Amino acid sequence: MIRPAGNEPEAPESAATLHDLVVGQLRNILLEGEFAAGRRIPEAELCARFGISRTPLREALKVMAAEGLVTLRPNRGAVVTPIDATAIGPIFELKGALEGLIGTLAALRANDAAMTALEEHHHALGEALSRRDQNAYTRLNYAFHQLLAQATGNPLLAQNYEALQQKIWRYRFAVNEFDERLVTSYQEHEHIMVALRARARLDLAERLQEHNRLTGEAMIRAFAEIAEHNPRSKKEKSA
Question: What is the pTM of this model?
Answer without folding.
Answer: 0.77
